[in-house]
Amino acid sequence: MAFQFARIEIFARSDKAGRTTDFIFNEVTRVPSASVHVQSPKPPEVVYGLDIDALRTLHDERAAAAKTPRTDKNGKTTLKAIRKDQNTLAAVNRAGFAGGSNS
């Protein structure tokens, strides 16, 4: 199969444009409201790794637990939760056509 394009995108748990990690997980699991652009949606095929529900759970747990050090003006360092608009998910979107060649 020859690929027409490959694109990497990053997403946050909160986004003004609405393309949040929840939307992306809903899109890949073919929730109707998140996949209206797909005429005949089929279940996703996991090529490698975790199934989508397990990946969503792992992502949400790790994003909620992630902390970053913060030092105040007195030199005291504390851990603070990362912001909701911090990118926490990267996705690769590949499109191709069947029967193509790599030449």
Q: Largest beta sheet: what is the strand line-up?
A: 1-4
| Structure summary, number of beta strands | 4
Oligomer designation? single chain
* Global structural class: alpha+beta
DSSP strand content: 25-35%
Count every helix, treating DSSP H or I runs of 4 or more residues as helices.
2
Low-confidence stretches: none
- What is the domain tally? 1
Cα distance spanning the termini: 10 Å
Structural account:
The protein has 103 residues and is of the alpha+beta class. The chain has one domain (2-97). The chain is 21% helix and 31% strand. It is built from 2 helices and 4 strands, in the order βααβββ. The chain has helices at 21-28, 52-65; strands at residues 2-12, 67-71, 77-81, 87-97. The strands form 2 sheets. It has a two-stranded antiparallel ribbon. It is elongated. The model has no long low-confidence stretch (mean pLDDT 87).
Keywords:
2 helices, 4 strands, elongated, two-stranded antiparallel ribbon, alpha+beta
Would you kindly provide a brief summary of this structure?
The chain has 103 residues and is α+β, with helices and mostly antiparallel strands. It contains 2 helices and 4 strands, in the order E-H-H-E-E-E. The longest helix has 14 residues, at 52-65.
